[in-house]
Write a structure and sequence with these properties.
It is a single chain. Helices cover 67% and strands 4% of the residues. By secondary structure, the protein is mainly α. It has one domain. The protein has a two-stranded antiparallel sheet with strand order 1-2. Strand 1 and strand 2 form a beta hairpin. The longest helix has 34 residues. The N and C termini lie far apart (47 Å). The C terminus is likely disordered.
């Protein structure tokens, strides 16, 4: 039902929202697959062209400095479209319509549909934990999700935010029962689901570092609810499950970005450096009667 709904949803989308739906995914994927050898690609924005002064890394400090001054975007955010373009190129199906609209249909199936399903799955768990058993929480949550005009307008588009949303929702599905269960035991299948959830969290944080605002509280809540409730068990859960598998998720994107960029790149650091460190520099200019704050950009 969700697949059918989102495919129809894509067919009704005939508008352009903002340039990010092209520059964040379609253009870099197209440039990498269809670019003629020896020629530059005008479709790549500064987020992909940003480079450190020296790409040779010999120490951890040089790696951090290189990452902070390097690219802002990770190739993991465009991997579905990248694979799709490779397939249609090999099959000779790379017509203008397929190149332009194919990734949107793919995005609807691989990203929007899992997000819709996650809303249903989590709401069913909430319904089972609620004292109002006769109130259909799951159906109303699905209704609100499918009737949301903004999700219909933006979720199916090729944004890195959409992929971040899907990874977060799937991670919540994996640990949702544990977040609601007051007597969380260290059952192997629960530990395995939590490991997978934080691995997806590492992927999500590599795409957009704002995911940390969701996965850090999630890890703390789960660690404090683990059995037995001792400081040692909390510390082990945080380090061996949350941090370890989150770092493994990030490491997988590091390997992909190293292969695609051709030098050690850590877009998470580049994103934080540009949007947080450089973006918070504010200059105050005194004008007659009041002060204005102008954000400096470089």
């Amino acid at each position: 039902m969700f697949c059918t709904f989102r495919i129809i949803n894509v067919c009704f989308i005939q508008t352009q929202f903002d340039p990010d739906e092209y520059w964040q995914q379609l253009e870099p994927a197209y440039c990498h697959v269809f670019k003629e050898p020896g020629k530059s690609c005008p479709g790549l924005t500064w987020e992909w062209k940003r480079r450190p002064r020296d790409t040779h890394v010999n120490s951890l400090s040089e790696f951090i400095e290189s990452g902070m001054n390097g690219p802002v975007r990770s190739y993991s955010s465009i991997l579905p479209t990248l694979v799709f373009y490779y397939v249609i190129k090999c099959l000779g199906l790379d017509t203008p319509w397929v190149v332009a609209r194919g990734p949107v249909f793919l995005n609807a199936i691989l990203i929007a549909v899992p997000t819709d399903w996650s809303v249903w799955y989590l709401s069913k768990w909430m319904e089972s934990a609620s004292k109002y058993q006769d109130f259909s929480i799951g159906r109303w949550c699905v209704y609100c999700c499918l009737s949301s005009w903004f999700l219909a307008y933006a979720l199916v588009r090729t944004y890195s935010n959409s992929l971040e949303t899907a990874l977060l929702m799937l991670s919540l599905c994996l640990v949702g029962p544990d977040l609601l269960d007051k007597d969380m035991s260290q059952h192997p299948y629960r530990i395995g689901r939590a490991c997978l959830a934080f691995f997806l969290g590492g992927l999500s944080c590599s795409i957009r570092f704002t995911s940390l605002a969701a996965f850090v509280p999630m890890g703390l809540i789960l660690s404090f609810r683990a059995q037995p409730k001792t400081f040692r068990s909390v510390l082990i859960y945080i380090i061996c499950i949350c941090a370890l598998f989150g770092l493994l998720g990030m490491a997988s994107t590091l390997a992909l970005d190293y292969h695609m960029y051709g030098f050690p790149a850590f877009p998470l650091l580049g994103n934080i450096h540009f949007n947080v460190i450089l973006g918070t520099r504010v200059k105050h200019v005194r004008l007659p009667g009041f002060l204005l704050a102008f954000r400096l950009t470089t």
